[in-house]
Amino acid sequence: MTGDVNDLDYLDGNAAAGPLSEFFSTDVVSARCRCASCGRTDALATARLSPNSHGLLLRCPGCTEILMRLVDTGDSVFLDLQGMSFVELRRG
Amino acid sequence: MIGVTPETRTARTLRLRLPGLTGHRAGQHVDVRLTAPDGYTAVRSYSVASASPGDELDLTVEELADGEVSPYLVHQVAVGDQLEVRGPVGGWFVWDPADSSPVQLIAGGSGVVPLMAMLRAHAVADPASPGAAAPFRLLYSVRGPDAVYYGSELDALARSPLVDVTVLYTRAAPAGNDRPPRRLDAATLMQSVWPAADNPAVFVCGATAFVETVADWLVLGGHSPARIKTERYGDTGTRP
Q1: CATH superfamily, with its number, for domain B3-89
Q2: Can you give the residue ranges of every domain in chain A?
Q3: In the structure, what pLDDT confidence band is assigned to residue A8 with cuts at 50, 70 and 90?
Q4: DSSP state, B70?
């Protein structure tokens, strides 16, 4: 797969639930996240997910800027959250 | 893996037992990791098709011609083999039995799998839960009769007054079908689904192009984007 956002090869942020479960004890794809670039706030599950050979990218469905980057080197897994300005978890 | 059931020429259902699992939510998926002898690994997500409360679940896997994982799962893995599985995960694309809203399920091809889990969960829901009395509609767009998953079970579920199943054939229809095979279009979609005024909870699953097109048509038809949940299977070249 390529990282070209014009391709129709992206999935939903929902598909990142497994890899993100290594970092978060709660189901973070259901959490609302604010895009640091355009301010759109919605469930992470609605983001556009592009898997690649070394991890995944989540892009804002509004402005297509990168929300989250996950890189898996085998021994370590890195999570870059720079593209989000907050995460809202709802209790219960 | 404790059981296997063929669905079509290119798909089969694998029954897995996951020690320690105590049920799951309808619509969730698992990640399956395969590791080659040289250490190369490939991970793919598969939707859970079943709605059982215990430590067993079913995955229905469609073989992708150039897939790294699905050909192994469809043709090779055997009862008694062990698989590396993470999950079930994902709390977004799920049906909640506490929600009494009417439910509209829209499947493109193998996208029917998580929607089948929702139909099954609805059928076995605690009668006291608000969702048990929720009316469900499934619109299932599929290439031809030989590509239909769960055919006889869908017929049985559709005998419930709460469940309506519409199968639209895109390339080949069974004999006696009153609609010639053709692609789903916006007019047919809007005739087949709950009116927007009923404010249904909508779940759309299929290839990315299918999901994209259907979700756009629903919004143009007045459905609130906030009520439409989608699960894209990637680009398998299939449009409605």
Answers
A1: Translation factors (2.40.30.10)
A2: 11-88
A3: low
A4: H
Domain B103-232 coded CATH 3.30.160.270: no
Q: Long-range contacts: B157-165, Cβ < 8 Å, 24+?
A: B157/B119, B157/B123, B160/B123, B162/B122, B162/B133, B162/B134, B162/B135, B162/B136, B163/B119, B163/B122, B163/B123, B163/B135, B163/B136, B163/B137, B163/B138, B164/B135, B164/B136, B164/B137, B164/B138, B165/B137, B165/B138, B165/B140
Of residues A9, A12, A18, nearest to B89 (C-beta): A18
With beta carbons less than 8 A apart as the criterion, state whether B27 and B47 touch. Answer: yes
**pLDDT one-digit tens code per residue, B62-92:** 998 888 899 999 999 999 999 999 999 999 9
Distance (Å) from the alpha carbon of A16 to chain B's nearest alpha carbon? 8
Q: Identify the closest residue of chain A to B209 by CA–CA distance.
A: A8
Domain ranges of chain B: 3-89, 103-232
- Comparing alpha-carbon positions, the chain A residue that sits nearest to B86 is A18
How far, in whole angstroms, is CA A70 from its chain's centroid? 8
Q: What is the model's pTM?
A: 0.94
Rounded distance, CA B203 to CA B93, Å? 7
- The reported pLDDT for the residue numbered A9 is 74
Q: Distance, in angstroms, between B207 CA and closest chain A CA?
A: 9
How high is the ipTM of this complex? 0.88
Average pLDDT, chain A: 89
